[in-house]
């Protein structure tokens, strides 16, 4: 089923694959970071955009993945790639267990509970100083090789993670279970009377999200070679992830990725030019997105760009 | 043959008694109408059967099995389907895909998309929505969205269909249409319990009627008898209009 | 020993109650979970700090300024930003307030620096002692202020016309509208109150511990837990919840260790959400039932 959209996407991927041979290390790093967010946003979208459960604290699994790789490579000398399945598995198991009590909550209760999960796990890891290095952080074995090679290596691995997340989201959108998740998002009661076992499906959705995000976390840890609880749990990641999903549209497969590209590239430009106020600009950007683009860029400007549409978005949810 | 029995069914929310001592049977293949003034407990009863809320007293028996402790999705797999008063189509899915969800997860429980699509198309055809199958359901007018609800329930392959005020808000012509469709469903062998306020419609299609008032059953019988029942009239219009026979 | 811990817990709890009351009120009435609450409180801390540093104003005298300034600030935010998104999906509001938090925290870091500050007037170190328990004067006064403010808030909501209007709005928005209450004004007023109270709490915070923009999140978290424990919009509940949190926190710090404070607090909160979501004293409010 070849159609225009798919061709564009293919072209886009090909460009990305060829890029490292033409651009500098700086841009490779920026893009690798962008892929990171693309992967996180896409993976998290399974539970957030598709199933309608705003797992604001999903970054918890990013941190978990980072530490799984961190611990396995340092304490058990495991080769990097071998750690990734463990990251996924840990994410899946923890989400499944936590899902039992927490998925019973709805809307913002659920959102805050997931933030609670994130903070609690952060604290626990902070305290397991023997295993994780606690607040001092964990230093991973540095990869051997030429810097050129290393940049490219992580570029492709991160790209791979993002594409893998996209693939999983795509598959879910096409299979029977994807229909069930979307039904749950719209009306959980209606979904359950149709015959969908909602608790199981919600858990399944969160577990997959967790697994994907955990893998990305593992890659991040190896990339940076140093992690500590403050950087991998929280910070601006949760809100950026959410803003990206919103911007690009949570009901589509590539929406979150597009949101990630746009937001990350804007962030990078702002950061490089206006380092001091970069944080404030991010805050303002988010406020702007919520006020004027709550349905996402593409949904809002479907028929063409106009300021009017921005204003009407503003008035729509007005008290 | 009796497909559903309500025996001393009661429902309270804390101290508030919504349903008390409701007893009636539903015969296989009939259309049973449940009517009653607002607040009578009709939708609550439907929520009990579809297990969206716990039953606090009595039992509900479906095909000889007590269903008090079943989960909603188990009820669906047993062959009970329901529509909702406020229609919420699953956005992001086309009309056809919406109905396919029913085929996937209802009693039909199919795994293949092809099979689900086939069942969905058939259901859409029965309710007359075949021409909009690829459209976004959120742009459909009310009457068509109600039909979508029915189609989705149909695709589940139910033996018992619960309709919750499916006639509300329809124009005269749309009402006629819907009534004909419900009779078609009966002809397919599906038992139907319908909650309604639109009298012409419910009296026109029901084989029997149960009247609830303030949580209790106050009358049961054929439509023509119910209309003359003085307790029913009193419940709806006040004692001034009720004439003792 | 345990008495000392309990007293410490209660004193801390009073502060948590104050930080929680404003948050809980806003949440209960407008259904907005204000993630910027902690940051707004910190603005109050900085106001007190700079007034102390530059104007040599006794910190307790800066309280009215803090309250009024942040009251106005909160009003403006609600009126010109939040009111535009109130009817949207709930987690949109969450992100919005988070965006505001990010902005405020970065603003404070940029202009006030990330260094830890505290306000230490001359009477800072002294304390009183009875029954073997040491009670620092400042903490005691802070507790009393928190208690008094909570009582005033409770009376305000209960007895005054505006207070009743606020409660009416939280119980049933449509009905309140039909009696002529303007939801826009009530929402703005409520948020303003919440911010003012946050500012007050922040000012008091500056006297009891060191602060920096980075503790904003932790403050909001505490406010959130207090709101859940006490029941949304319930002033008395917030006070109880605050004290409960204070006691549990000091107890767990002592017996289990400093590092698990957050985990235990969260565990408590999640437990509460599952077992009795309406809180220790709460009933279901409009905000809660609506969605």
What report would you give on this structure?
The complex is a heterotrimer of chains A (319), B (245) and C (291). Chain A starts with a helix and ends with a helix. The mean pLDDT of chain A is 88. Chain A has 16 helices and two strands. In chain A, helix 8 crosses helix 9. The longest helix of chain A has 28 residues. Chain A is globular. Chain A has 319 residues and is mainly alpha-helical. With 245 residues, chain B is of the alpha/beta class. Helices cover 38% and strands 25% of the residues of chain B. Chain B has a six-stranded mixed β-sheet with strand order 6-7-8-3-9-10, with helices on both faces. A four-stranded antiparallel β-sheet of chain B has the order 2-1-4-5, with helices on one face. In chain B, helix 3 packs parallel to helix 5, helix 4 crosses helix 5 and helix 6 runs parallel beside helix 7. The longest helix of chain B is centred in the last third of the chain and has 16 residues. Chain B is globular, with a radius of gyration of 18 Å. The two termini of chain B are 33 Å apart. A two-stranded antiparallel ribbon of chain C has the order 1-2. Chain C is globular and about 60 Å long. In chain C, helix 2 packs across helix 9, helix 5 crosses helix 6 and helix 9 runs parallel beside helix 11. Chain C has one domain. Chains A and C meet through helix 5, helix 12, helix 14 and helix 16 of A and helix 4, helix 8, helix 9 and helix 11 of C.
Q: Which helices and strands appear, and what pairs or packs with what?
A:
The complex is a heterotrimer of chains A (319), B (245) and C (291).
Chain A: H1 4-18, H2 25-50, H3 59-75, H4 80-102, H5 107-127, H6 129-132, E1 138-139, H7 147-174, H8 176-186, H9 188-194, H10 198-224, E2 226-227, H11 229-232, H12 237-248, H13 255-273, H14 278-292, H15 297-300, H16 307-316
Antiparallel strand pairs in A: 1-2
Chain B: E1 2-13, E2 16-27, E3 31-35, H1 42-49, E4 57-62, E5 65-66, H2 72-78, E6 80-82, H3 95-105, H4 113-127, H5 142-155, E7 160-164, H6 172-187, E8 191-195, H7 199-205, E9 208-213, E10 216-221, H8 223-228, H9 230-237
Parallel strand pairs in B: 3-8, 3-9, 6-7, 7-8
Antiparallel strand pairs in B: 1-2, 1-4, 4-5, 9-10
Helix pairs in contact in B: 3-4, 3-5, 4-5, 6-7
Chain C: H1 2-30, H2 37-55, H3 59-80, H4 90-112, E1 127-130, E2 133-136, H5 137-159, H6 161-171, H7 173-178, H8 183-208, H9 216-230, H10 235-255, H11 261-275, H12 286-290
Antiparallel strand pairs in C: 1-2
Helix pairs in contact in C: 1-5, 1-8, 1-9, 1-10, 2-3, 2-4, 2-8, 2-9, 3-8, 5-6, 5-8, 6-8, 9-10, 9-11
């Amino acid at each position: 089923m070849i159609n225009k959209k798919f061709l564009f996407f293919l072209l886009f991927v090909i460009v990305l694959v060829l890029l490292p041979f033409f651009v500098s290390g700086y841009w490779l790093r920026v893009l690798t970071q962008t892929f990171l967010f693309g992967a996180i946003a896409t993976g998290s979208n399974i539970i957030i955009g598709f199933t309608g459960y705003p797992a604001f604290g999903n970054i918890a699994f990013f941190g978990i993945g980072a530490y799984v790789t961190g611990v396995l490579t340092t304490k058990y000398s495991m080769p990097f790639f071998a750690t990734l399945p463990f990251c996924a598995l840990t994410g899946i198991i923890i989400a499944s267990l936590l899902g039992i009590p927490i998925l019973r909550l709805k809307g913002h209760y659920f959102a805050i509970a997931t933030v609670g999960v994130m903070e609690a796990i952060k604290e626990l890891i902070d305290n397991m100083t023997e295993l994780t290095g606690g607040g001092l952080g964990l230093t991973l074995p540095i990869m051997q090789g030429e810097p050129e090679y290393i940049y490219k290596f992580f570029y492709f691995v991160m790209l791979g993670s993002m594409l893998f997340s996209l693939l999983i989201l795509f598959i879910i959108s096409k299979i029977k279970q994807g229909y069930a998740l979307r039904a749950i998002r719209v009306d959980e009661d209606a979904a359950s009377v149709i015959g969908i076992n909602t608790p199981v499906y919600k858990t399944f959705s969160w577990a997959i999200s967790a697994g994907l995000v955990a893998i990305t976390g593992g890659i991040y840890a190896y990339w940076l070679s140093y992690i500590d609880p403050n950087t991998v749990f929280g910070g601006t990641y949760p809100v950026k992830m959410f803003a990206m999903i919103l911007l690009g549209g949570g009901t589509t497969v590539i929406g979150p990725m597009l949101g990630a590209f746009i937001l990350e590239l804007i962030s990078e430009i702002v950061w490089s030019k206006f380092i001091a106020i970069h944080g404030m600009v991010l805050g303002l950007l988010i406020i702007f997105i919520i006020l004027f683009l709550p349905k996402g860029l593409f949904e809002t400007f479907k028929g063409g760009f106009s300021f009017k549409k921005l204003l009407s978005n503003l008035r729509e949810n007005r008290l | 043959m009796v497909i559903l029995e309500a025996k001393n069914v009661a429902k309270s929310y804390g101290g508030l008694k919504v349903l008390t001592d409701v007893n009636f049977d539903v015969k296989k293949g009939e259309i049973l109408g449940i009517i009653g003034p607002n607040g009578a407990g009709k939708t609550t009863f439907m929520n009990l059967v579809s297990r969206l809320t716990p039953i606090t007293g009595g039992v509900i028996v479906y095909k000889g099995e007590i269903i008090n402790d079943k989960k909603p999705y188990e009820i669906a797999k047993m062959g009970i389907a329901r529509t909702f008063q406020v229609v919420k189509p699953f956005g992001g899915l086309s009309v056809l895909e919406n109905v396919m969800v029913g085929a996937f997860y209802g009693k039909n429980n199919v795994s293949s998309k092809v099979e689900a699509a086939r069942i969905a198309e058939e259901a859409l055809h029965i309710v007359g929505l075949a021409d909009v199958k690829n459209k976004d359901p959120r742009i459909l007018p009310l009457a068509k969205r109600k039909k979508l609800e029915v189609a989705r329930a149909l695709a589940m392959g139910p033996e018992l269909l619960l309709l919750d005020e499916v006639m509300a808000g329809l124009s005269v012509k749309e009402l006629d249409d819907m009534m004909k469709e419900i009779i078609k469903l009966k002809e397919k062998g599906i038992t139907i319990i319908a909650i309604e306020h639109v009298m012409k419609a419910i009296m026109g299609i029901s084989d029997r009627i149960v009247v609830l008032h303030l949580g209790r059953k106050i009358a049961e019988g054929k439509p023509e008898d119910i209309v003359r029942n003085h307790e029913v009239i009193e419940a709806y219009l006040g004692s001034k209009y009720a004439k003792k026979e | 020993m345990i008495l000392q811990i309990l007293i410490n817990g209660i004193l801390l709890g009073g502060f948590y109650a104050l930080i929680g009351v404003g948050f809980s009120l806003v949440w209960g009435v407008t259904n907005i979970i204000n993630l910027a609450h902690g940051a707004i409180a910190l603005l109050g801390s900085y106001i007190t700090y700079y007034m102390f540093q530059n104007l040599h104003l006794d910190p307790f005298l800066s309280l009215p300024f803090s309250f009024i300034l942040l009251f106005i600030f909160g009003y403006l935010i609600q009126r010109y930003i939040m009111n535009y998104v109130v009817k949207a999906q709930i987690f949109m509001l969450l992100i919005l307030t988070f965006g505001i938090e990010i902005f405020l925290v970065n603003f404070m870091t940029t202009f006030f620096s990330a260094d830890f500050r505290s306000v230490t007037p001359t009477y800072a170190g002294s304390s009183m002692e009875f029954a073997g328990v040491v009670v620092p004067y400042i903490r005691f006064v802070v507790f009393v202020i928190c208690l008094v403010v909570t009582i005033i808030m409770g009376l305000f909501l209960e007895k005054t016309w505006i207070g009743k209007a606020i409660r009416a709005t939280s119980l049933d928005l449509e009905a309140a509208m039909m009696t002529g209450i303007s939801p826009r004004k009530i929402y703005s007023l409520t948020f303003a109150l919440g911010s003012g109270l946050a500012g007050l709490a922040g000012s008091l915070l500056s006297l009891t511990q060191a602060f920096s923009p980075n503790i904003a999140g932790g403050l909001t978290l505490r406010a959130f837990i207090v709101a859940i424990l006490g029941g949304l919009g319930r002033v008395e509940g917030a006070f109880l919840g605050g004290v409960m949190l204070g006691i549990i926190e000091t107890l767990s710090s002592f017996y289990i260790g400093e590092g698990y404070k957050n985990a235990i607090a969260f565990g408590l909160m999640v437990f509460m959400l599952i077992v009795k979501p309406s809180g220790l004293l709460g009933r279901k409010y409009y905000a809660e039932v609506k969605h």
